[in-house]
Write a structure and sequence with these properties.
Strand content: 15-25%
Number of domains: 2
Number of strands: 29
CATH class of the largest domain: Alpha Beta
Helix content: 25-40%
Amino acid sequence: MQDAGEFDIIVTGAGSAGCAVAGRLAEGGRSVLLLEAGPRDRSPWIHIPAGMTKLFTNERYNWRFESEPVEALNGRTLYQPRGKVLGGTSSINGTVYMRGTPGDYDEWRQRGNEGWDWDNVLPMFKRAQDQSRGESEQHGTGGPLKVSDMPYRLPLTEAMVEAAVQAGIPRNPDFNGPEQEGTGYYQFTATNKRRWSSAKAYLRSASAGRNLTIRTEAHATRIEVVQGRAGAVQFSTPGGVWRARARAEIVVSGGAFGSPQLLEVSGIGAGGLLSSLGIEVVHDLPAVGENLHDHFNSYLTYRCSVPSTLNDLANSPLRQLFAGAKYVLQGAGPLTNTGVAVGAFVRTDERLERPDMQINMLLWSAKERRRTGIVPFPFSSFTLSPVHLRPDGRGTVHINSPDPLAPPAIQFQFLVSEYDRQAILYGTRLCRKIASQPALAPFIEEEIVPGPAVDGDDALLEDVRARAIANYHPVGTCRMGNGPDAVVDARLRVHGLQGLRVADASIMPQIIAGNTNAPSIMIGEKAAQMILEDTG
């Protein structure tokens, strides 16, 4: 085993949170080693927003996980793309910037997590942000993360918003402002028509560079724990196995799938499971890998009566040539956005205090979105996607082999309650209501998926079981809290061990209402602040 040296802090995983942790700690004067299993972010498709489709199944930059069969979804497995590159999933996602509601974080505090209420996390969001609209009570400027409005709009996007208004949903100019409920345009982690990943935000500054060592294609395989303290990390590279020592702390930032996996192969987890796989139990912590949950979504597809969507680009080499030239020469055109343009947040029951349903309105549609790739419909069409934001189901992520390079077993639980079922049905009907409004009449020829023949609760629910998917926002597998169902405390320290923290979406005790990239970056910012405070 080769010696990689000694550092103040070692961070395993250069994703949304990991880059923020490493960059801020290095800026704070700590020597930091950042390990990333994937390569550097040099592919041009990473930096072109519309390149998301090229990365959806690219095995060089994507872990391409597959879940275990989901009983409630007719035993189907669910494809789970996750970033395997500097920036993690922030380098391959749809770039939507969304925080959730203040009540989401106040609920974290109510669960005993001191310092995670909205008043305490808002400064972290603002510190991270460089908001193109300027500074305000909710937004910050001068931070490393660029946040901007969509530069390229089609007539269809405004028609979608107007149709939602006609369906009874009020306009909302800022989903990250005083209120989330309503319909309007999303904002994005992009600037000058280019993606702004967590890697680009946090790993490029000169002040961080002096103290930051980045090792790519370096897969963390084991955390060494001696007498209750984490002190070293082993990692595998094309050049062999290495060992790095941490003077102060190790921060695990592998995401909702990778973080519990690394803990378990290191002997930190449920003792019975680890023993059954022949792994020495270093620290019996049964909550590791539990509490997996995600947003849950289906989708409805509409064929257009006139060419008006990104499918027209995908199905025409000539249009692609013109779009590429316009992007290169002018920094404009359809390649400047991912097609996740506008949306709405609503409550499925008026008695609820916060939105629990997100309607994504997409400027494209696909026949298939699996490991085989994204296959667009061969005609102009768009998608309305109801996303249930607060599902009751809780699954697991556990290793099924002592091999640290083997993928973990990802077990989702969806549609476990009547609330879950009624919520997705409500969202499906709301999408149809939006599509039926006058504003969209000039664009829609017909509903092709699931089609008007699929109607009534039973038929719609069966269609959901046949087609619906997890929404690529997994969280919760290293839950923050107190007691036997938690992995880390409110300062993200692993219960019962010293020198070891987890900082990524896996620590969320409850998923937030909206896309999880911005909250993961906030978690990285807050983790870095706490580590700087605790390590002097």
